[in-house]
Amino acid sequence: MCGIVGYSGPGNSVGPIIEGLSRLEYRGYDSAGICLKINNELQIIKKEGKLDNLKKLIEEKKPFSHTGIGHTRWATHGEVTTDNAHPHGNEVFAVVHNGIIENASTFKKQLIAEGFHFKSQTDTEVFLVLLTKFYKETQNTLQSISKTFSSLSGNSAFVIIEKSSDKLYCIKRSAPLVVGENKEKREAYVSSDPFALIGFAPRIYFPQDAVICESIVSDQDVNINFYELDLKPSKRFKFQSNAMSMDATTKGPYEHFMLKEIHEQGALINKLAAFYIKNEGRKILEGLKGFTTPEWHITACGTAWHAGIVIKNYFEQINRQRASVDIASEFRYKNPILNKGEISLFISQSGETADTLACQELCKEKGIPSYSIVNVEGSTLFRNSDKNFLIHAGVEIGVASTKAFTLQALTGYLMGRAMEGTLDQPELFSEIQLLSNRIDELCANADSLKEVAEKIYSKKGFIFTGRGKYFPIALEGALKLKEIAYVHAEGYAAGELKHGPIALIDENIVNIAIVGPELLEKTVSNVEEVKARRGKIVIVGPKNLEEIEHLADAYIALDFEGLPNLSPLYVNVALQFLAYHIAKLKGTDIDKPRNLAKSVTVE
Ligand code: F6R
């Protein structure tokens, strides 16, 4: 969703701000803008649509400025227009904002009654106008930020620059914000995502909620000051060296980030297993040994919810512990039955998904401990969890989640094995290694999946089916296809087809049937039912099984041997490739599919 980048230093702020915003494009946005302090004026350049529109304007003007802020906006309050794009500015300040101000309309009415004017429909401008009003009363920027922030509610991050100095100010509540510095170059940075600062700011700080950060660049140094809202110095921030490598910011030899991320999975699986079974992560998992709870409440959205279903199956099958899985936007409003002794488990790549965070709040209010399987260390979910199980997937840039799913499910599997006390069984490590090898083999032979895609990509609709442990993979396969190829796709339990969806079947519909070695005959009879109605059949099934191969218009042969627990993750990678190749044939924007945002920070 929205992205923020700010810079102050001796160089031209335009370069790092635009580079940072380009890196955040993957999150999804609909307009972009920049405010630069030039000759003691705050000059705003902004444009609806893609960042390229803004870049064109900047190329024409060729501005130079030591201090600036930039933003990519994903509309919440107010339509997608250039006026509503950020930054918002006036004769004193310019502001960029991520999140929502919940009481904006109340303040807006009051401010209008007091004679203030608004140029946009955004809630952000309420922050700007209130800030300016307080500044006119106090002539003190820090005090005015504190008063404005305290008056407004809702989860937000604000970055502010002013006409009278080159300082960067920022503050946030339950929204991501990172401040960075490069001592050698005397540069200060701020962003909503450390990814934007890779290669720019070797030292980064994560301020906690309601801490005002003030970055000051002088001729000798760069200093970042942290204040509480009463303007006393604050220590509520976490320092980290920005260890992320520049490789994360490029596609390497791959045409798309999604393809790169699919290929990364084999290696990441081995790394995660080594971390949790053999290295530092071991003590995190060992804490679970012998652990039981009457019920796990697993909550997540989208792909992470599918990973949650895989994990529920692991907990129930390995540990015989009851686990429920809910879509976060449903769980939070269903008045869930939560009892003492139960545990909530949140799954999220970004750790910033608004509905998932709201469920975490709810569970905390009810006194239920909160565990998380999460990718982004330092994210809101991470910070608010009692225990975190990081998936160590690295940055996931493709909007369609791939490697995060695999590593979320694997982390859940390892948690189950840790509870069972079987982390040391050699068969565990070897199954994981085998999974990694099989995924690498799939990557090496991905052309065969391209051939399957060529046979079916022009069809009208796609029904993915699977039984048992493959049911969540059918759901995930369908989600991946619809989000990147813009075709209608549904996932069903194979046995459920005849209870309604079979009415859809004709020669324009493709059934992508996952036929695992378990319940093989039953699943094959479901395929027969589709075939009898002239549906096109793609089977993802065991290799060397000629008796079912002949049923299919295309057969994706996988080697299920030796993967009794992890085969769903393997099958899923085949479906990731299939979705990718169908999308490529359709010519869609694979890494940034229309209407989607990487991190859904609104409800
Ligand atoms: C699908 C996808 C989304 C996310 C969902 C949750 O490919 O990426 O469905 O899985 O928005 O996001 P996180 O995991 O960040 O909470």
Question: What would the keywords be for this entry?
Answer:
alpha/beta, 3 domains, Rossmann fold, globular, six-stranded antiparallel beta sheet, 603 residues, Glutamine Phosphoribosylpyrophosphate, subunit 1, domain 1, binds fructose -6-phosphate, eight-stranded antiparallel beta sheet
Structural notes for this entry:
The chain is an alpha/beta fold and 603 residues long. The protein folds into three domains: 3-248, 4-Layer Sandwich (Glutamine Phosphoribosylpyrophosphate, subunit 1, domain 1); 251-444, Glucose-6-phosphate isomerase like protein, domain 1 (Rossmann fold, 3-Layer(aba) Sandwich), CATH 3.40.50; 446-590, Glucose-6-phosphate isomerase like protein, domain 1 (Rossmann fold, 3-Layer(aba) Sandwich), CATH 3.40.50. It is built from 18 helices and 24 strands. The chain has an eight-stranded antiparallel beta sheet with strand order 3-2-4-1-10-9-11-14, covered by helices on one side. α4 packs across α5 (141-151), α8 (302-319) packs parallel to α12 (403-420) and α13 packs parallel to α18 (567-586). The protein starts with a strand and ends in a 17-residue tail after the last helix. It binds fructose -6-phosphate. Fructose -6-phosphate is lined by residues 301-304, 348-350, 353, 356, 400-401, 479, 483, 599-600.
